[in-house]
Amino acid sequence: MFDLVIRNGTIFDGSGEARRVADVAVQDGRIAAVGPKLGPGRREIDAAGLMVTPGFVDIHTHYDGQATWDPFVTPSSWHGVTTTVFGNCGVGFAPVRPGQSPYLINLMEGVEDIPGTVLNEGVKFDWESFPDYLDRLASMNRAIDVAAQLPHGALRFYVMGERGADHAEVPSEREIEEMALLTEQALRAGAMGFTTSRTTKHKAKDGRFTPSLSAREAELFGIARGMKRAGRGVLQVNSDFGPGEFEALEAASALAGRPLSCLLVQVDAQPKLWRETLDLIHGVRKAGRLANAQVGSRPIGVIMGLETTAHPFAAHPAWLEMRKLSPAERYRRLVGDADLRRRLLEEPAGPRAFMADSFHKMFPVSDTPDYEPDANDSIAAIARRSGKTPQAVALDELMSREGKGLLMLPFENYAYGSLDVVHEMITDSATVLGVADGGAHVGVICDASSPTSLLTLWGRDRRRGPKLSLEFLVAKQTRGTAEAYGLCDRGLLAPGHKADINVIDFDALALKRPEVVYDLPAGGRRLIQRASGYRHTFNAGVETVQNDELTGERPGRLVRGAQTVM
Q1: Element (DSSP H or E) covering residue 42
Q2: What is the rounded distance in angstroms from the CA atom of residue 29 to the CA atom of residue 92?
Q3: CA 503 to chain centre
Q4: Total-model pTM
Q5: Is 368 exposed, middle or buried (0-12, 13-18, 19+ CB in 10 A)?
Q6: At what angle are helices 273-286 and 420-427 packed, to 10 degrees?
Q7: I want to staple 565 with a disulfide (CB 3.0 to 4.6 A). Which of 155, 184, 440, 496 is the partner?
């Protein structure tokens, strides 16, 4: 008798092969069999008419701090994710010397918009080395599995101190060798990879560029030699890909003998750079080396509300006068004070007004969020039709729903006003899904829900272009992401694989409207987004979600390094 049998479901096994109706049997946390009319189970679930998929594997998150205090790792666990990888983009919290944590918090707050007050309260920093940090992660069971990577920023600061953050000096040969040894140590202890940031978009809260921005080839190659000695791990990079940059990173990857994984988005200022970078990645693959691009499945959507980090009036002097008021008090002021509203609309908004010239790319967020909005539905278009100014329309929207109204600005991956470019990215053979950023940008973005919109948008609801098969989409978010990090024991519904499973009512699958909650340590604020349609999610055969709600079970473990099928 099996521990669990999921009967008569429509199986999307993660391989990309055609769906089929079959049973899935689970024994001792592993998939025991997939086929028709399997034997009895101690528990049986009738999945007739439902999708049965592997658990989703999200390889690009920033739960480095949250995973130390939150055993449920939301929002990701609400969206069918059963394994998540963090430590991306060169930022994280280990290694760290006593007294160095304020800088790492300063860096994370600036780069990933996680409030310093939250991190100071929530992250205990009761570790020093990266292996110590892994042990700390391993001490807590969670609803999902977690895995961590070694971040360049923390490593450089650990070895060089303030010199590693100020960009005034290069490390000595001794310091480079120390970085290499610590990289080797981290990978041998179970780090999934080494990550670095090479983009000017990444700054600490104090305004300094991320430490790894100025790392030269000698430093990159030294760390690569540490990876080579360990013989494991992925080199993950976030870069602006200026002249010679890709070549240097690829040379480091080749020296290490390890896969190169590059974050790839379309930016408005250089809307074709993504294609040039992807062509370079294809060149690496043709030469027989492992490389991929981590891409998103929807626009990078900045969410704006009266309680979020950014909105069109956030830098306005009249708004700043209310900075010490609670959200409810600010809303009451807006409702009752006509002169305040007049000042917001008529007086200059200040030199740092957020996207003041982008009302043509701002859209109201409805109960059913639209991730491919049409320009005719923008704030600017509504303003033209109504005879109002865009500022007045935006303020009306933000004040709607008793001050809970939201706007979305597709910040990246939307230069041409459609998802046609994203379609190219997703369907390219050299890409994996990896820009959801769960746990980060908590006051402006909630793209951790991307595994859900991947299925609903591309598999069912897209109106402005071609859809994609569910077989392809499931494989992209399961086997594709798992194999990119050597997690070969999951992402596939096949005997011997880990019993991470989703049972999904696809007809009912939907994303709910984002909302602001105050559930982080120290009462910190974040955006969350729930979903409907997840009948069951299992991690290692233990049910963690039932009918869209967490069960409280915590079978998730720390994953140390690449995994094989038992």
Answers
A1: strand 41-46
A2: 31
A3: 23
A4: 0.96
A5: exposed
A6: 10
A7: 496
Number of Cβ within 10 Å of residue 257's Cβ equals 12
According to DSSP, the residues that pair with 364 across neighbouring strands are: 407
> What's the CA gap between 360 and 414, in Å, rounded?
12
Q: Which amino acid is at 499?
A: A
- Number of other residues whose CB lies within 10 A of the CB of residue 217: 14
Residue 530 near residue 74 (C-beta atoms within 8 A): no
Encoded amino acid at 115, one letter: P
Dihedral of alpha carbons 69, 75, 81, 87, sign: negative
3 state SS for 267-285: ECCECCHHHHHHHHHHHHH
Whether the CB-CB separation of 212 and 197 falls below 8 Å is answered with yes
Q: Give yes or no for a contact between 333 and 322, defined as CB atoms under 8 angstroms apart.
A: yes
CA-CA-CA-CA torsion sign (403, 404, 409, 411)? positive
- What CA–CA distance (Å, rounded) separates 146 from 130? 15
Cis, bond preceding 75 (omega within 30 deg of 0): yes
Name the more confident of 269 and 68.
68
Look at residue 14 and tell me whether its pLDDT is greater than 80. yes
Residue 167 gets which letter from DSSP?
S
CB 274 within 8 A of CB 299: no
Mean pLDDT of 178-182: 98
For the chain, how many residues are written? 566
Written as six digits, the tokens of 356 are 């003041």
Using CA atoms, how far apart are residues 30 and 26, in angstroms rounded to an integer?
A: 6
Q: What is the pLDDT of residue 122?
A: 97
DSSP characters over 455-523: HHIIIII--SS----HHHHHHHHTHHHHHHTTBTTSSS-STTSB--EEEE-TTT-EEPPPEEEEEEGGG
Q: On the CB side of 413, how many CA atoms lie within 13 Å of its CA?
A: 25
Place of tokens 């999902």: 144
Specify the amino acid at residue 303. I
Task: List phi, psi (to 5°) of 209.
Answer: -65, 155
Task: Map out the domains of the chain with their CATH numbers.
Answer: 2-54+498-550 (2.30.40.10), 56-301+414-484 (3.20.20.140), 302-410 (no CATH)
Rg of the chain over all Cα atoms, to the nearest angstrom: 23
Residue with tokens 């994710």: 81
